Amino acid sequence: MPHRPRRTALVAALALLVAACGGGGAPPIDDPKEILVKAVEALQQAKSFQIRADLSGSVPLDLTGTGSGQPLDISGTTLEGAFDMANERARLSFSVPMLLNTTGEVIVVDKVGYLKVSLVGPKYQKFDTATGSDGLDVPTDPKASLDEVRRALDELKSPPQKLANERCGDADCYHVQVPFDAADMNLPENATATLDVWVRTSDLRPAKLSLASDAGSEGKVTIAVEIFGYDEAVAIEAPPADQVEEGTAPLPLP
Which residue of 55, 56, 60, 231 is 20 to 30 Å from 223, comparing CA positions? Predict the structure, then answer.
């Protein structure tokens, strides 16, 4: 059988090619809850990442307090940020065109926060994020935080649903949809809210998410977030001292 060695070599070459193209990756996950938990875990383990968010829709503007405000178009509102998870640093910049073209930036370095808002002034307000209920909460026990994610998913009135896989740029992604109860989102009783999450199948890192809420006359808002730049170098430094003044109120961080 003179051709057997050639066939064996050909099969081996094809096997190596399939493995190089991802054929030896992790087995697919069918449980939508597990996909979300793995995505949170992957985000925690990243050295760094960046985000870009866009807001669209409208919210009522009630300056008189009568409950009959006019719709305010929030389209064009953007948020961009970089997170250095290894060194617990973050930088977020935002733009809100419909509010007198307001812009601003938040920087967190060494548990100190700096907030600058164009409507307030040209300097950063300095705050201590390590103390107080409004401080920056950095989980110290990843397993405990993952348990919290699982518990929250189990307590949802409507469980997450795994939809068909989709492409996220040049990657294959799981698509998981999470319906929220209106009360949990502080929305009117007849409102709806849905979170869609796309997670890369190759490494289970989240690629993008979209949060859509519809409260009828109370407003409709969609927040689309792209997550990218995993493990890339990011430069996040405190602003120069001559651009900083002591803050007079807690830094409004989640």
Answer: 231
